[in-house]
Structures are given as structure tokens and as C-alpha cells.
Design a protein that fits this description.
There is one protein chain. With 233 residues, this protein is mainly alpha-helical. The chain has 3 domains: 37 residues; 64 residues, Winged helix-like DNA-binding domain superfamily/Winged helix DNA-binding domain (Arc Repressor Mutant, subunit A, Orthogonal Bundle), CATH 1.10.10; 94 residues, no CATH class. 61% of the residues lie in helices and 6% in strands. The protein has 10 helices and 2 strands. Strands 1-2 form a two-stranded antiparallel sheet. A hairpin with a 4-residue loop joins strand 1 and strand 2. Helix 2 packs across helix 4 and helix 5 runs antiparallel to helix 6. The longest helix is centred in the first third of the chain and has 31 residues. It is elongated, with a radius of gyration of 23 Å.
Length: 233
């Protein structure tokens, strides 16, 4: 056993303390990263930036998130090097714009692929009338529904129909995202509540909602992996 009077003992002890502190810092940073990159709102903002919606005001308008929250999220993404900031000078003002990094794009696409599979399972469960599986999805993944609607992974009309089938109502964020998706579509469709009424009336087949998928309740969704979005200004 090494004596406490041995000079190397003191050095080794200090090194161990430093290593322990570094490990704690790294663990804290890792936990922070996991928490932030597993946040649906972070992915909504990241997806908006990837579409070309690059200023705080426009991101806030497109995502229906408060500007203060968007600013906080963007700062988190920038710290993690998932987005980069650029100052663009115009006549009498300077605009701050954001763009996704290669790492940010990879993370975004990875999350989309993961949720794409869940959306397929959800569609299949709905077509089979499997209410128990739909309820399980809502219990475990509902926090991700706004991102799925915003990114087009889930069709707004399908979601409204599913919620009606389950006897559930949309929460405020789901309604806001649905309204934005409806406004972006060429059909001129309205809110999630109107969507449910259209489904009940059997009018779903002729409408196209903002996700870019076939909105017919009985049809399959196109999950080809290409995400074509309209820029919301």
C-alpha cells in the first residue's frame, strides 16, 4: 500500500481528483445533451431551420412556439453544434440566421426514420381497428406528435380521424401545428376540429393536408423517405 508520505501518493491523489471532476462534468454534459436532443421542440426547431426558415421570428411563426422558447432552443442547438449562426448585414439592420450543421442534419434524419416506423405501425393499427395499440402509442409517444405533424411524418387529417376514433381531443400544441399545416396546404383546410367533422361526414378522400401524404383514411401513407416541405413564411 502506498504511503501518504510518499510524494507520488499526493500527485496520484490529485490526479484522481481531477479525473473524477472531469468525469462528473462529462456526465453532466452528456445528460444535458441527451435531455435536449430528446426534446420534441428541439427537433421541431431543427426541422424548421433545415427547411430554410432561419430567423427567430419566422421560426416562431412557423412552429407556433413563443419566440423566447425558440431563442432558448436555438441556443441549445448551437451549443451542441447542431446549428450554426450567421450575421447578415442589410441596409440599416443586421439579421441573425441559422442553418443546420452536418451533425444536426444526421440527428434530424435519424429521428425521422425512427418516428417514420412508428407512424407506419400507427397507420396499421388504425386500419385494423386496434384501439389498444393506438392508446399505447398515445401513452408513450404523444409528446412527439407535434413534431410528426410538423415534419409531415403524420398526416393531419389522419391524426384528427384517429383522435375522433379514440374519443380524444387534441392538445393546444397539436391544434396549433394542425392549423399551420392546414394553412400551408393547397386545400385551404382549417383546424383540427374541422378535420374531425370532415372525417365524420366522409369527406376525407378529397382533401390534401399539410403533411404531403394521401389524406384518405383508408389509404396507405407514403413513407418513401423523401421529405419535401413548403417554407412557411
Amino acid at each position: 500500500m502506498q504511503s501518504s508520505k510518499d510524494p507520488t501518493y499526493t500527485i496520484n491523489r490529485k490526479l484522481n481528483i481531477f479525473i473524477t471532476i472531469d468525469d462528473l462534468i462529462n456526465c453532466k454534459d452528456m445528460s444535458r445533451n441527451i435531455k435536449e436532443t430528446d426534446s420534441p421542440n428541439h427537433f421541431i426547431v431543427l426541422d424548421a431551420i433545415e427547411r430554410g426558415i432561419r430567423t427567430l421570428d419566422k421560426i416562431s411563426k412557423a412552429t407556433r412556439l413563443d419566440k423566447s422558447e425558440v431563442e432558448m432552443v436555438v441556443n441549445d442547438l448551437e451549443v451542441q453544434r447542431l446549428v450554426s449562426r450567421t450575421e447578415k448585414r442589410k441596409l440599416f439592420r443586421t439579421n441573425t440566421e441559422f442553418s443546420t450543421s452536418e451533425t444536426g442534419l444526421k440527428l434530424l434524419n435519424s429521428k425521422k426514420r425512427e418516428l417514420e416506423e412508428k407512424a407506419k405501425e400507427l397507420r396499421q393499427a388504425y386500419n385494423n381497428g386496434n384501439a389498444a395499440k393506438l392508446q399505447t402509442f398515445m401513452n408513450t409517444n404523444r409528446a412527439w406528435v407535434p413534431f410528426m405533424l410538423f415534419s409531415g411524418l403524420m398526416d393531419v387529417l389522419f391524426f384528427a380521424s384517429m383522435m375522433s376514433f379514440m374519443g380524444m381531443t387534441m392538445n393546444p400544441q397539436e391544434i396549433a401545428i394542425s392549423e399551420n399545416s392546414g394553412a400551408a396546404s393547397d386545400s385551404g383546410a382549417g383546424t383540427g376540429t374541422e378535420s374531425q367533422e370532415q372525417v365524420s361526414a366522409g369527406e376525407a378522400g378529397s382533401e390534401s393536408w399539410g403533411g404531403g401524404f394521401d389524406s384518405s383514411v383508408d389509404s396507405g401513407m407514403d413513407f418513401g423517405g423523401d421529405f419535401n416541405f413548403k417554407v412557411l413564411s
